[in-house]
Amino acid sequence: MGKRRGVRIVDLHLGPLPIDLVNATLELDLEPGPVLLSRGAQKHALSSHPVEYPICLPHVAAVVAEPLYIGDDLRNPGRIELIGRVPAIGAFLLVAVTIERDVAGRYNVCSFYPISDKKIQPRRERGFLRVAVRRR
């Protein structure tokens, strides 16, 4: 019998960062660029949140594309938080993304995990997390 192998983790290209939303919400001036969820970031998320990882992974791209909340992750400079409600997991999903593009011009997901409304509300009250501003 051959060796049994686990699921192969590959880089995932999640589409463009919604810079209009991010820039309007956080008053930034980010340039357009795609978002990458690298193998390394997936391994980090898997080791940090092993139970939640397979449940959350299918929803990361949707949260990046249309976040409900956008925040400045002050504890981790150079990163922002994109948060969306994901009914399929019964919670909100936080996706941490770099605001500096890599040499290939991509923004990178650092981590992702479920977050409760109980944790979101204090961040909103302190002004660290804002409702995404959709310009018309």
What's the short version?
This protein is α+β, with helices and mostly antiparallel strands. 27% of the residues lie in helices and 30% in strands.
What is the terminal-to-terminal distance?
60 Å
User: What order do the SSEs take from the amino end to the carboxyl end, as H and E?
Assistant: EHEHHHEEEEHE
Percent of residues in β-strands: 25-35%
Count of beta strands: 7
Low-confidence stretches: none
**What oligomeric state do the depicted chains represent?**
single chain
| Structural class based on helices, strands and sheet pairing | alpha+beta
What is the percent of helical residues? Answer: 25-40%
Number of domains: 1
Most strands sheet = 7 strands, mixed
Give the mean pLDDT.
91
What is the radius of gyration computed over CA atoms, rounded to a whole number of angstroms?
15 Å
Overall geometric form? globular
Biggest sheet strand order reads 1-2-6-5-4-3-7
- Helical segment count: 5
Task: Give your account of this protein's structure.
- The chain is an alpha+beta fold.
- It has one domain (12-131).
- Helix content is 27%, strand content 30%.
- The chain has helices at 19-26, 39-48, 53-56, 60-65, 117-125; strands spanning 12-16, 34-37, 69-72, 79-86, 91-98, 107-115, 129-131.
- It is globular and about 45 Å long.
- 26% of the residues are buried.
- The model has no long low-confidence stretch (mean pLDDT 91).
Observed structural traits:
136 residues; alpha+beta; seven-stranded mixed beta sheet; 7 strands; 27% helix
